[in-house]
Amino acid sequence: MTTKKELLSRPIVHLDIKQHNVVSLVDAMADMAFSSRDVHRASSIYDMMLRDTECGVILCIAGSMVSAGMKQIFIDLIRNNMVDAIVSTGANIVDQDFFEALGFKHYIAEDQYKYGNEDATLRELAIDRIYDTFIDEDELRICDDTIEQITNSLETRPYSSREFLREMGAWLEKKGHTLAAGGVDSIVHAAYEKNVPIFIPAFSDCSAGFGLVAHQHARQGQPVVSIDSAKDFYELTKLKIENPSTGLLMVCGGVPKNFAQDIVVAAEILGSDAPMHKYAIQITVADSRDGALSGSTLKEASSWGKVDLTYEQMVYSEATLALPLITGYAYHKQAHAARTGKNWAAILDKVAEPVTA
Predict the structure, then answer these.
(1) Catalytic: which of 194, 257, 306, 333?
(2) Which residues does residue 283 pair with via DSSP β-bridges, in sequence order?
């Protein structure tokens, strides 16, 4: 029987868009058809979005993008001022990015494993599978325990996910889990350094949830750390109110997509005449016909008053194919050259805590 060590021997290597100038390739797609032309238009819109220095760029991440090799792309977007806020699933940021910051890796699963025929064997070996990617369950438990330790060190009060993730970035800095200290770079630490807020609307649906559950279970009847999802929504809405011109780069769909789109409506409810998102790109393989969120079109979002129709593009492609082209195009055209960090996390840190009775 194949051993665990043998199965976890070929790590995922994260794609570095800085090393691949795709501008001529993507420009050639303008004279093609189908998804190629959609990719070119999406790339042009992202380029335009970044050159509009008044625009606040919100990156939305769903799917298992970090485990699939996209981590370095997101880090480069943060470090080059190509994104001002992130809305993500918990798995991407905690189970995958923070997990790798602790020194762990994701591994390539060979073809015979990705269709599920050997999942019982994988369970015996404590190997978790994400389609054609492996993760060590024992190492993932260490990630869960680390979140509990961070939670235990905090003042017992409600936190937005953005505040909690900032504490995770501070913990990485303190413990030397950084590129500068000889470790690996991470989305969490890059965002911490650049004051780019990360929001995870379903924060408990990942290793963070396990750590928070363990924390609260150990403190029955005592004050606890908790996550305030309404505070998440309010903070991101406040950013929309203070920076009315916004654009969305949405990778897959799900809760991050809707959460980011909804802040236009929330701002309106709070009495602000905030405009719809000026730019919007979504990469998805989901179908719109079942009415599910991931496949709903940006034109449909316009009917809700969330997305303007002038600069919007759906790209029907698996994200690991389209995202490197779209982001690489803008990076190598230096669309971000005139941009400076909007420092949104620092702005939110200055917001006074609400007074409770």
Answers:
(1) 306
(2) 251, 315
